[in-house]
Amino acid sequence: MSNIAEGFERGGNKEFLQFLALAKGSSGEVQSQLYVALDQSYLDQKDFNSVSARATAVSCLIAGLMKYLKETDLRGSKYRYVEP
């Protein structure tokens, strides 16, 4: 979440995409640590499946946002709405 927030505040799509990629990578790290936790019996299969599914869903959401940002014509903070 922190990588996404930091990338958004940078004000441009290229840097935002870079930080989204880091966040997506972190999702992969969570998946890896879940396998370790399962192997060490820190959590059972049911909990593993639940958390793993959520991590996969988050990764898919991040990938979708990355795809959108690569395809959109909107670029950076100049497109943010500012109330008069």
Q: What are the salient characteristics of this protein?
A:
about 80 residues, mainly alpha, de novo design (two linked rop proteins), about 75% helix
Account of the 3D structure:
The chain is mainly α. It has a single domain (2-70), classed as 23S rRNA-intervening sequence (de novo design (two linked rop proteins), Up-down Bundle), CATH 1.20.1440. The chain contains three helices and no strands. The protein has helices at 2-9, 13-39, 45-71. The mean pLDDT is 89.
Q: What is the typical, i.e. mean, pLDDT?
A: 89
Largest sheet: none
| CATH fold group | de novo design (two linked rop proteins)
CATH class: Mainly Alpha
**What percent of residues are in strands?**
under 5%
Shape: elongated
In DSSP terms, counting alpha (H) and pi (I) runs of 4 or more, how many helices? 3
Oligomer: single chain
Please give the alpha-carbon distance between the first and last residues. 30 Å
**Fraction in helix:** over 70%
Category by helix and strand content: mainly alpha
Uncertain regions: pLDDT < 50 for 5+ in a row? none
Number of strands: 0
As a whole number of angstroms, the C-alpha radius of gyration is: 16 Å
Could you say how many structural domains there are in total? 1
Secondary structure elements and pairings:
Elements: H1 2-9, H2 13-39, H3 45-71
Helix pairs in contact: 1-2, 2-3
